[in-house]
Amino acid sequence: MKNKKTIKLLCALAALVLAVGLMAGCASSGSESAKNSSSSSSAAGKAPEFDGVVPEDGPSVRFTMSDGGTFTIVCAPEYAPETVKNFLDLVGSGFYDGLTFHRVLDGFVAQGGDPAGNGTGGSGKTIKGEFAANGFDQNTLPHKRGSVAMARSNDPDSATSQFYICYDEQPSLDGNYAVFGQVTDGMDVIDAFLNVPRNSQGMPQTPIVIEKAEIISE
User: What whole-number distance in Å separates Cα of residue 32 and Cα of residue 167?
Assistant: First the structure.
């Protein structure tokens, strides 16, 4: 029998999938509160570990949360051009303003950008999956702490508006999801999401709200 840690990891990997059937299954499994104190303390004090893989002069987006905290994402259009264009178009239109991070998973990712607020929604437009497993070898960006990538369903070309930010390295996702940017400032704000009580699927019991997302350099 697989131990609880293995089961938790498998559930976390499944959480990136946006398929409605999966989300409905998760919703029906109850809302037992997860204990977050040990995981949040392990993240405390960590730096974004920005190492220059994503050029610092790329297009930059600042997210301001409802509690006043901010973080900055620098995008890498030379690695994932359509993904970055889609993301910047959504930011520029105000799409992300008022949306939430609906899933926060210890040691894994914080996922947001869903207008439905439960992992099933999107912008109404999908884009090509710019990652190696989908025949797009141009994108060699890895999943590391602070990496930003697009969530999707089983369809490789189903990414829309939902994105996730890695808490730790996730090499098993490399080449299977489109990494398109890096948090270069304010990773402590994303770490603080771990302090919010969540249910057993990682959904915050108090919404983690994006007040505003804005392009600060192009």
Answer: 23
Contact criterion met (CB below 8 Å) for 54 and 78 = no
Question: Residue 184 is inside which H or E element, if any?
Answer: strand 179-185
Architecture category of domain 4-217 in CATH? Beta Barrel (2.40)
Q: Higher-confidence residue: 215 or 43?
A: 215
- Torsion-angle region of 28 (φ positive above 0: left; ψ -120 to 50: alpha; else: beta): alpha
- Residue 12 pLDDT more than 90? no
Residue 123 clears pLDDT 60, i.e. is over it: yes
pLDDT in tens, 58-81: 999 999 999 999 999 999 999 999
- This prediction has a pTM of 0.80
Residue 150's closest CA among 123, 117, 177? 177
**What's the per-residue H, E or C state across 133-171?**
HHCCCCCCCCCCCCEEEECECCCCCCECCCEEEECCCCH
Compute the distance between CA of residue 53 and CA of residue 44 in angstroms, rounded to an integer.
24
Tokens 């508006």 locate to 161
